[in-house]
């Protein structure tokens, strides 16, 4: 399995209404120092309807300013449709963080 495929498989396991981080994904797939590469893989996501990359935020809970599939507003809307509250471009990591 390629790095990108590993990222996509992990992201597909993130439940609706929860978020994870680039760093968490990197650790989970055995590449703990590859958070930036995780972001790059998600930016190339060939199947955004299947791989829910909108559920990935930074370690502070901030949404991706360059969300590849429509910008921060689209990411916020997709999360809110799943019950995740987004305030000022950020989600409450205490409430919504999923470790897998």
* Element pattern in H and E: HEHHEHEEH
What is the CA-based Rg, rounded? 12 Å
User: What structural class should be given to the helix and strand makeup?
Assistant: mainly alpha
Biggest sheet: strand arrangement: 1-2
What are the defining features of this structure?
4 strands, mainly alpha, two-stranded parallel ribbon, about 100 residues
What does this 3D model show about the protein?
By secondary structure, this protein is mainly alpha-helical. It is 40% helix and 8% strand. It has five helices and four strands. The relative contact order is 0.21.
What's a quick, concise take on this entry?
The protein has about 100 residues and is mainly alpha-helical. It has five helices and four strands, in the order αβααβαββα. The protein has helices at about 5-10, 20-30, 35-45, 70-80, 95, and strands spanning about 20, 55, 85, 90.
Summarize the helices and strands and which ones pair or pack.
Blueprint: H1 3-12, E1 20-21, H2 22-28, H3 35-43, E2 56-57, H4 72-81, E3 86-87, E4 90-91, H5 93-96
Parallel strand pairs: 1-2
Antiparallel strand pairs: 3-4
